[in-house]
Design brief:
This protein has ten helices and four strands, in the order βββαβααααααααα. By secondary structure, the protein is of the alpha+beta class. A four-stranded antiparallel beta sheet has the order 3-2-1-4. It is elongated, with a radius of gyration of 25 Å. The termini are far apart.
Length: 198
């Protein structure tokens, strides 16, 4: 047996089971399930309620993954931001990894492929680490990308300088400083950048 409390906040009705946040429902859900604040439910009804809250969390996570590749940390953030319960979020993320809907290696590969035209390796690596991708996975994904792709950091640096700074006087110390500062923020190898400025 468990006591249900309902806290209304906007269009969402937050459900507490024995004082712990379990997720949220809408008014239509409450009516359909005949739930009221302070009600005591037997174990079977509590399990049914928890399963409904879990499915709602799982379906929301899947809706994010239908539109783009995400890592576990991003899905966790999105679900927390949408008021889903922490224990449901963790269960969902675990299931998504088991089902291969989430895959850190695949995510790292897509991220690297997407951002190498505009960012240097150091910045991409630090962004992936911030997203809780394991350092070894990042290294392997980068090494594989560099072996198979026609990646040329010198060409990328040259293209950016030409497009972004081509009309400026490269002998001007302020211009050079601005260019180096830009590439530093973007995580490029500064020795290579300096080679393009000499």
């Amino acid at each position: 047996m468990a006591k249900i409390n309902i806290i209304k906040r906007g269009s969402k009705d937050f459900i507490l089971i024995d004082g712990e946040k379990a997720g949220f429902l809408y008014d239509s859900d409450l009516r359909r399930m005949n739930l009221e604040d302070g009600q005591v439910l037997d174990d079977g009804a509590v399990d049914e309620l928890r399963e409904m809250l879990y499915r709602r969390t799982f379906n929301k996570a899947c809706s994010y993954l239908e539109t783009a590749e995400y890592c576990g940390a991003e899905i966790r953030f999105k679900l927390k931001h949408s008021d889903f319960a922490d224990d449901m979020i963790e269960r969902v993320i675990e299931e998504l990894y088991e089902m291969k809907y989430l895959d850190d290696r695949r995510y790292a590969e897509v991220y690297i492929r997407s951002y190498t035209p505009t960012k240097g390796r150091k910045l991409i690596e630090s962004e992936l680490l911030f997203k809780k991708i394991d350092r070894e996975i990042i290294r392997e994904a980068f090494d594989e990308y560099l072996e198979t792709a026609e990646y040329d950091e010198d060409k990328i640096i040259d293209d950016i300088i030409r497009k972004k700074y081509g009309s400026l006087d490269m002998s001007d110390i302020k211009v050079r400083s601005r260019i180096i500062s830009y590439f530093s923020r973007k995580g490029f190898n500064l020795d290579k950048v300096n080679n393009h400025l000499t």
